[in-house]
Amino acid sequence: xxxxxxxxxxxxxxxxxxxxxALLGVLVVFSLISPQFLSRATFGSVAFQLPELGLxxxxxxxxxxxxxxxLAITFTxxxxxxxxAWVLQQNGGVDAGPGAFFLGCVLGIGVGALSGVVMGLxxxxxxxxxxxxxxxxxxxxxxxxxxLTRGGDVSGFPAFxxxxxxxxxxxxxxxxxxxxxxxxxxxLLLTRMKLGFNTxxxxxxxxxxxxxxxNTRKVLVLVYTLSGAMCAVAGIIMxxxxxxxxxxxxxxxxxxxxxxxxxxxxxxxxxxxxxxPVFVALVVLQLLASGLNLMGANQHLATAVWGILLxxxxxxxxxxxxxKFLKRxxx
Amino acid sequence: xxxxxxxESGHKPLLSLRNINMTFGGVSALKNVSFDVLPGxxxxxxxxxxxxxxxxxxxxxxxxxxxxGAVIEYDGLTYSHMSxxxxxxxxxxxxxxxxxxxxxxxxxxxIAFQTVLGRWPRVVNYNSMRETAxxxxxxxxxxxxxDRPLKDYPxxxxxxxxxxxxxxGEAKLVFMDEPTASLTQSETDYLLDIVRALSASGVAVVxxxxxxxxxxxxxxxxxxxxxxxxxxxYSTEGMTQSRITELMTGKTFDHTIRARDVSANxxxxxxxxxxxxxxFEDISFTVRRGETLGxxxxxxxxxxxxALSLFGMLKPRSGSVKLEGKPVHFxxxxxxxxxxxxxxxxxxxxxxxxxxxxxxxxxxxASLDRIMAGGLLSDNSKRDLVARWxxxxxxxxxxxxxxxxxxxxxxxxxxxxxxxxxTDPKLLILDAPTVGxxxxxxxxxxxxxxxxxxxxxxxxxxxxxxxEVYFNADRVLHMAQGRIVNQFTPSExxxxxxxxxxxx
Lengths: 331, 504
Hints:
The structure holds 2 protein chains of 2 kinds.
Chain A: H1 2-12, H2 17-33, H3 40-65, H4 73-90, H5 98-126, H6 130-149, E1 154-155, H7 162-166, E2 168-169, E3 172-173, H8 174-192, H9 194-204, H10 206-211, H11 216-242, E4 244-245, H12 253-263, H13 275-294, H14 299-330
Antiparallel strand pairs in A: 1-4, 2-3
Chain B: E1 15-24, E2 27-37, E3 42-46, H1 53-60, E4 71-74, E5 77-79, H2 84-89, E6 92-95, H3 107-112, H4 126-139, H5 155-167, E7 173-177, H6 185-200, E8 204-208, H7 212-218, E9 221-226, E10 229-235, H8 241-249, E11 267-276, E12 280-288, E13 292-296, H9 303-310, E14 318-323, E15 326-327, H10 333-339, E16 341-344, H11 348-352, H12 359-364, E17 372-373, E18 376-377, H13 379-392, H14 409-421, E19 427-431, H15 439-454, E20 458-462, H16 466-472, E21 475-480, E22 483-488, H17 495-503
Parallel strand pairs in B: 3-8, 3-9, 6-7, 7-8, 13-20, 13-21, 16-19, 19-20
Antiparallel strand pairs in B: 1-2, 1-4, 4-5, 9-10, 11-12, 11-14, 14-15, 17-18, 21-22
Helix pairs in contact in B: 4-5, 14-15
């Protein structure tokens, strides 16, 4: 029994405490306030809204673990979506076949990965700060996207894309399944693969990792490449959800992804953080938004509440750290 | 306590402590300690980490309050405890190891900023700051451009600035905590001259240092603490380094020369005419199976650069390196590791280990390929591998998942050695393996080195402490200004022969 508890604890990690309590708190508070909260409708809306922010957060997570940041995530997603839209339009728009869709996805993910490769190479070889590098990439991609679309929407896609954005399999929304699949891949990458191991090591001390024989440049390039590819997945899901692509879609998610990582216990300076707590943190944020929505609160108020929640988490974390310090001093 | 040096008659102590007790959470940090300092003397406070040196300094400077019954006599007055304000006002100053300086501010601001604190009107008079700073520096016989930012100066000069700051408040007693830890030999000599000048001008200096050679050179008396208790107060006249080590650790170390004749063993590494611009020139040597080759010399002699070139992290300009007879060219340290060369960095804190990460992760980082199962990292193989090395090298740990920073210096170094042994190397380069390791734990490290050599590993042992290479290596090379200037065989020469060559 204790072995099972220990294994569960090892699986969840110490980062789980914060988001775990937050999840419990949100569930208890809202179900007390509103009887309709614990309903299929709430969970349905959460399940459909979670994937966009979630996939972008996964894209943000890897660079943050290396002690960096990828500010270009939303526009990378837009550009990948545009690539898919362009391929579909070239192949007949509404009449395009599944082959065109598949080709578009591959090219879209390629475009996303390419944006990551460029950032990764610049960061790894010039040692320029990731904030500056990804900010430059973000401005480039926004400009390029707005130039290509003249600032407007691109729409007119084949009907078989509808289920990808709105359909369900055995009651599970398709976007949610895609997201959970990506969470599983990221979890495997970070816990069981050399690249994940080295990502953490680089995040704590890149020079010491290099002295230990880690190919730090390769790891950085791969991390940003994977981040870019994950943006592309988010872009494809967004295309299917809105049935259109516009440069600037999801822009407001950018900083929320950083905060979701932080809420999930990721060290803002790199080196520590796990996927599952970040996933739970995302669920908490969506439940909070849906719960407030259910109570008839303004959508902007929900954003404000997110901010308050994150400040509270920071204070609690400080208090917990202080408590631990006092305990150690006594002991 | 027969060796206790009497306080010379005619000199009343400037500071005298009696009956000092201090406990932290039930653990006794100081037990009935007494201590005194004469006016204008240089006094060394020695002891291993955790022996109570810092606690004692903090009691004298008023940071901690000792338990009842303590008597502190200072400059004719008696106190039961000090406070930071009384200590400062009475002219007691401490220069901590981290210096607490502001690199972006000018020398003058760093020295004199305290003079403008809490004064009315709240404006800063830069001219008077500059004057104060120049006066303090002049007292040390040093000239620095007081308008330049501190970061323009190397660490030795920053140390001087910290001392100058301590002097502006009419200091009578200055504590220096490991002042030479990050200095080169010539910088150390420079600092020791300053300390002598300070002492000659009537300021008493209490010197805390791990480097016993310095202790003997600079101080007239020595107080040794062990486990929070006073071992004794000694005159440094006639004292030897090994005697101080014994007093600090309470153990006697038999210093026997380990050197053996391994000339029949096959050659592992053969270096021929290796050069790198401005760092080392025309280096040739061989290391055989089971041989420990010592390389000594002052800091800046090019030892670390040579090691990094063998490890593939620096590119030599010319010359050749052969590993087991085959010429090798490394484009990165990954090639070197794959070929069987391991390098233990001299800077364990920032390059050798990844301090916030776990003991287990630090141990396996260089040998991930050995803990793979089915293309994925296996937690079980990792745990087994770590557990095996922890036992083999006698590392004392709590949990494998604890941060490596929670271990003592000696145990951290064992993990760092285990990290490289896990890569199954043919040649292990140990660069200053005892830096920041307690005197008592050093013997343990060298026992491991000796055992490894017995298993056939070729070892290069780099150290600026001549006795370390003399007692532990089979052959010793002396490097100076990037060249090998001398070669010794410990079994055929005296320690003094090598020291004469190095410090000449």
